[in-house]
Amino acid sequence: MVISERTSAVSVTVDRPMNRHGTMTVEVAETNETRHLVEFAPGVEAVLSDLPSDTTLPVEMRQLPARGSCWRATAVGRSARSR
Description:
This protein is mainly β. Helices cover 6% and strands 42% of the residues. The protein has one helix spanning 44-48, and strands spanning 9-16, 24-28, 34-40, 56-63, 70-76.
């Protein structure tokens, strides 16, 4: 687990794995909201970069100001491969 920046974790499912530009798309389990992870706290990108589609895990994130549905992942928990 990576130390968080005072955000709460939500369960997300990887919709589109991390691309060559270092961004990925996830869906929030409770709301079916699509979020684009475009920034990562130290150590978080390495954990998320190898996850395939349909992996579910808790992710702490905060929305980036003036960036639409773009988010910074601040911490991750254990993953459950496939839904």
